[in-house]
Amino acid sequence: MSYNSILSKFNEYYYGITEKIKIIFFRIVYIFKNKDTQKVNPLISVYVPTYNRCSILMERAIPSVLNQTYSNFEFIIVGDGCTDETKPSVLGLNDPRIRFVNIKRKKRKFPNTVKNHWLAGPITPANYALSMVKGDWIARIDDDEQWTNDHLEKLLEYAIRNNKEFVTANVESIVDGVPVINKGHKMFSDYFCTKDLKGTRTENPEIGGTSTVLYRSFLKSFKYNKNCWRKTINSANDIDLYVRFIKANVRIGHLDDVVTYQYPRPGEDTIGWDAYHRDSENKIQYFNE
User: 20 to 30 A Cα–Cα from 94, which one of 42, 67, 207, 229?
Assistant: First the structure.
């Protein structure tokens, strides 16, 4: 058995034991703290990890967050050692809701391939952002994606009404010029390799894209797994986290409505891994800058 397999198996057991205990503890603490009160307008911590994409960050993610119909949020922007105009551009907005940090870009622990950057590249700034969270709920947006104006309002209302701790929704994408509505994949499915976890549970909602997530802030200790790239299945950082939520019995729901737009970046025809794969030479050069 290889070192990657051994470490991945150890992490799986570690997360499987500790995170089931964590979620029970968090729920008890949450109930105790809120037994006499019910927050009507909870603070949502929105975060975005970014690296040298100033133009698209300023054109897409930032305006769509700042223009939300739900107003009680903080916006955490973590630069992964940005060397472009990200810092002065963000600070120039002079918006009190924004908290910006440009962390030192560390040498990655994984082999320098486009796939590994796709799987694990945003983990360091994402985990840093989670350490900064002050809100009752957490939402994430990628720097090249956009939200509907009522994104936070709809997801929060759905989560509270249905007593869910982690919710997602649908994404409208453009793939090779064709609009596509993506609901994600069923929680218990071949995609997540989780069919055997269903047991007697009757609910099986979809889990949608990264920029549709909203979850209770007591789950912020479920950090992204920096060794996810070593795994043979569920090796993308977001999928690894969602499967751990499933295994920890987090209450999961899905809003069947579009709340996020995922369009190709300038000069590209598609999105996600396909965009990375088609432009691998330029992508690896970008990450090496």
Answer: 42
Kindly report the pTM of this predicted structure: 0.96
Report helix, strand or coil for 121.
coil
Question: How many helices and strands in the chain, by DSSP H and E?
Answer: 10, 11
Instruction: Answer whether 149's CB lies under 8 Å from 187's CB.
Output: no
Q: By three-state DSSP, how is residue 79 classified?
A: strand
Q: What is the largest CA-CA distance in the chain?
A: 57
Q: How far, rounded to the nearest angstrom, does the alpha carbon of residue 107 sit from its chain's CA centroid?
A: 22
Report the C-alpha gap between 200 and 205 in whole angstroms: 15
**What does the block give as tokens for 159?**
């989560």
Contact 27, 250 (CB under 8 A): no
pLDDT tens for each residue of the chain, 289 residues long: 799 999 999 999 999 999 999 999 999 998 888 866 667 899 999 999 999 999 999 999 999 999 999 999 999 999 999 999 999 999 999 999 999 999 999 888 899 999 999 999 999 999 999 999 999 999 999 999 999 999 999 999 999 999 999 999 999 999 999 999 999 999 999 999 999 999 989 999 999 999 999 999 999 999 999 999 999 999 999 999 999 999 999 999 999 999 999 999 999 999 998 999 898 888 888 888 6
Q: Are 213 and 166 in contact (CB under 8 A)?
A: yes
